[in-house]
């Protein structure tokens, strides 16, 4: 009787390629120890420039079968790849790979994995907190209480407050968008989703209503954006679409700032008609004189929704998990598909 072949376990020669700041933040001693058990790795070698004139780096890259990358990894262009003739895989301990994975990587048949799914968790958690707080009118009620410094008649001041049977509109059935859908399931909310790539059958499986973007804007108490930054998504929420939103509705943006027309949003917010929770803006760091810092109906945060602090260790764990799968001859659990990369952030 024949038996299934047991996958051969290897310790692939692996090189770190990221900024020094990224390595210090992501690769805690425990993660480095685990990485060294899974891979043949020189923890002292860190590549920040593929063209550096460093004999140890040239030798390491020439022998590398896997690149373990993070924020600050230089682009893998033809010159960089020519120094890595044995490269078979790139394991990215962060989200988007568009900054360093080039067409030349795909042309060489190099497998690529990303920790984008792990990075989606904190963004979705931030978003759900923003949604629940928005429907409870937390910013306004806190302001009123601070001014009154006495009992507030809630039924009089906030008669429509609460999350029961409110409508949440999710723009983009991305990793983050789908995680938000999952986290919202315990609540009594109506969830709408707009995504041109989401079919009706898949929407039913997710338990959401698939709608057009204008309908989503008009019907939602909270609109949260999770679409990628593409030429076709620039200023997705412009003057006309913002005008469709209900009085008192909240716009949450944890995606790229370019998806919202900042000038148009400021004009709407200045009237007090809408509220906003903004973790991304255009520009990414607003000028000091921007009204968004001071408007009472705006919660502005400094790009903190994504993995930060201890959450960065989740990215390292996810990436080492992928490298361990590779070492056991298994396919990546979170492989990047070049055919759908254009749809992603």
TrEMBL record:
Gene3D superfamilies per record: NAD(P)-binding Rossmann-like Domain
Name the UniProt record assigns to this protein: Hydroxyacid dehydrogenase
Cited SUPFAM superfamilies: Formate/glycerate dehydrogenase catalytic domain-like, NAD(P)-binding Rossmann-fold domains
Keyword Ribosomal protein among record annotations: no
Domain spans labelled D-isomer specific 2-hydroxyacid dehydrogenase NAD-binding: 129-305
PANTHER family linked to this entry: 2-HYDROXYACID DEHYDROGENASE YGL185C-RELATED, 2-HYDROXYACID DEHYDROGENASE-RELATED
Domain of life: Bacteria
Signal sequence interval, chain numbering: none
Source organism of the structure: Streptomyces durocortorensis
Keyword line: NAD, Oxidoreductase
Pfam families: 2-Hacid_dh_C
């Amino acid at each position: 009787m024949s038996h299934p072949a047991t996958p051969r376990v290897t310790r692939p020669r692996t090189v770190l390629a990221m900024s020094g700041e990224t390595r210090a933040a992501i690769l805690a001693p425990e993660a480095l120890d685990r990485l060294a058990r899974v891979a043949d790795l020189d923890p002292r070698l860190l590549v920040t420039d593929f063209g550096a004139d460093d004999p140890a780096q040239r030798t390491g890259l020439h022998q590398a079968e896997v690149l373990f990358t993070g924020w600050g990894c230089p682009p893998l262009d033809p010159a960089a790849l020519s120094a890595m003739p044995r490269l078979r895989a790139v394991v990215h301990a962060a989200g988007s790979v568009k900054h360093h994975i080039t067409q030349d990587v795909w042309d060489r048949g190099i497998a690529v994995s990303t920790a984008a799914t792990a990075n989606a968790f904190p963004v979705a958690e931030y978003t759900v907190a923003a949604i629940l707080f928005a429907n409870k009118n937390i910013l306004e009620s806190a302001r009123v209480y601070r001014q009154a410094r006495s009992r507030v008649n809630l039924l009089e001041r906030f008669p429509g407050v609460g999350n029961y049977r409110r409508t949440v509109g999710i723009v983009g059935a991305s990793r983050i968008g789908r995680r938000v859908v999952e986290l919202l399931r315990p609540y009594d909310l109506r969830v709408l989703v707009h995504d041109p790539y989401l079919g009706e059958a898949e929407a039913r499986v997710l338990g959401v209503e698939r709608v057009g973007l204008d309908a989503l804007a008009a019907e939602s108490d909270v609109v949260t954006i999770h679409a990628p930054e593409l030429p076709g998504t620039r200023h997705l929420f412009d003057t006309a679409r913002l005008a469709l939103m209900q009085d008192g509705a909240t716009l949450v943006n944890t995606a790229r700032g370019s998806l919202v027309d900042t000038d148009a949003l400021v004009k709407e917010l200045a009237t007090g008609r809408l509220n906003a929770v903004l973790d991304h803006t255009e520009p990414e760091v607003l000028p000091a004189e921007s009204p968004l810092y001071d408007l009472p109906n705006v919660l502005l945060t400094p790009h903190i929704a994504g993995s930060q602090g201890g959450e960065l260790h989740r990215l390292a764990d996810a990436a080492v998990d992928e490298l361990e799968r590779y070492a056991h001859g298994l396919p990546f659990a979170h492989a990047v598909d070049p055919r759908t990369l254009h749809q992603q952030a």
